[in-house]
Prior knowledge:
Low-confidence stretches: 1-27, 156-179
Distance between the termini: 69 Å
Shape: globular
Radius of gyration: 18 Å
Order of helices and strands: HHEEEEEEEHEEEHH
Bound molecules: copper (II) ion
Amino acid sequence: MLLAGAALLGAAVACGAAPAAAADAAAQGAPPQSAPVQIQQAWIRWLPANLPEGGYLTLSNPSDQTVALVGASSRDYSSVELHRSLERNGTSTMVPVARIDIVPHSTLSFAALGYHLMLMQPRVAIAPGDHVPVTLHFADGRSLTVSFEVRKPAAGAPTDKSMANMPGMKMPGMKDTSH
Length: 179
Ligand SMILES: [Cu+2]
């Protein structure tokens, strides 16, 4: 009981190395089971100079129960956090999130909802074209290691709905040329 409480607290704080260590310990105690979710389009937006990089993926939950993603870790980064980008007064900011719920029989796209994994302080040189293993930690103690493809920012842009879908964008002066 005390251990579970500590793990939850760590996930809520979501800063520093402690949460990943707690999640790893929980994952090791969990029996091997089928994957809690199906993963598609797992990729990392590469940035130069060891800047924090965004990781994106799409999770499908085919089960009858909500699956909650509560953290992530990677051998190749010192720290991985769950973040969400939000629009506030026209400017984009991001906040740490403690959990992301994937409701039964649904598919959740990180990019479409502003979610991303914030991958910080790489331990090894990371370059576009690499594949980086990232372990996803779920509330029920299960975990899933996924291979993320590292892409250049421009290469990833077309599939990033949060960037492509800009409802405020109008083109004044453009004539309707459809007829
Ligand atoms: Cu972030």
